[in-house]
Specification:
The protein contains six helices and four strands.
Length: 149
C-alpha cells in the first residue's frame, strides 16, 4: 500500500450522493457557527454521524480547495543519518516552503516527524510530492494530517 497515491477529482454537485451533499451542508453549518456540535449539524441535515465522519475529510467545496496552501504531513521514518535532510531537500526541490518541523526522539530505531509546508509555490501536484517523499530511503509512511490557508 506504500505506492498508493491519492487522486483528486472535480465532480459536479448533481453527481454527488445524498450523503456527500449532506456532509457538505453539515460542514457549512459548523463553519458558519450556526451550530457548535457535529451532532447538531448532522441532525439539522438529516445525516448519520457515521456518514458524516466517513466523508468529512474527503469532500470539500471547490472554493476551499483553491485556498488550501498549507499542509501538515506526518512522516514515519527509520532513524538513519541524513534522512531528514533528504526529505527537506525534496520539499525544497518541488518548490514548497517548510514552515514548521517537529520530530520525536527516535525509539526502537524509528521517529515521527510532523512537517507543515506552504505549497503556494509548489511546482508539482501535492500527490507527486508525497510520492517522492514515500520513495525516499528509510521513509515508512507519509500522510496528510491537516491543511489550511
Amino acid at each position: 500500500m506504500a505506492d498508493r497515491i491519492d487522486h483528486f477529482y472535480l465532480v459536479r454537485e448533481d453527481m454527488l450522493t445524498d450523503a456527500m451533499q449532506k456532509t457538505l451542508d453539515a460542514k457549512a453549518l459548523l463553519e458558519s457557527g450556526k451550530v457548535k456540535k457535529v451532532a447538531d449539524a448532522v441532525q439539522a441535515v438529516d445525516l448519520s454521524r457515521s456518514a458524516f465522519y466517513k466523508y468529512k475529510d474527503a469532500i470539500f467545496p471547490f472554493h476551499t480547495m483553491l485556498k488550501e496552501q498549507i499542509i501538515t504531513l506526518s512522516i514515519h521514518l527509520m532513524d538513519k543519518s541524513g534522512t531528514l535532510s533528504r526529505l527537506l531537500g525534496i520539499v525544497a526541490e518541488e518548490g514548497a516552503n517548510v514552515l514548521t518541523i517537529n520530530q520525536t526522539i527516535p525509539l526502537q530505531g524509528k521517529a515521527n516527524i510532523t512537517v507543515t509546508i506552504d505549497t503556494s509555490s509548489l511546482n508539482t501536484e501535492i500527490s507527486m510530492l508525497i510520492k517522492r517523499l514515500k520513495e525516499t530511503e528509510a521513509v515508512e509512511q507519509v500522510e496528510i494530517i491537516g491543511s489550511g490557508s
